[in-house]
Write a structure and sequence with these properties.
Helices cover about 25% and strands about 30% of the residues. The protein is of the alpha+beta class and about 100 residues long. The chain has one domain: Alpha-Beta Plaits, CATH 3.30.70. The chain has a 4-stranded antiparallel sheet.
Length: about 100
Amino acid sequence: MIIRVSEARVRPERFEEFRGVIVSAVREFPGRHPGLVDHEVLLAPPDSLLYVSRWRSEQDLVEYAGEHWRDQPVVLPGEEEYLVEPLRVRHFVLASLT
């Protein structure tokens, strides 16, 4: 499993509007992307939002985000107007606790 974290630094005055845009956009992702195991939107008002998604495999991420999934975020049309800096994307794998 690969955990993908997209971090948005949002203009505080547009935070609530951006939250609505993101929640609406990702709501349908599980039906459109079969490799998406789970996802959530995490809020840290007034200016930070994380979209955390868990993917079954690297191939599933390629199908969602393209060949450059490791370093290029998926950006929704018009998203940049809400942001104070470019979207940042990072990836994680689970560490074994045993």
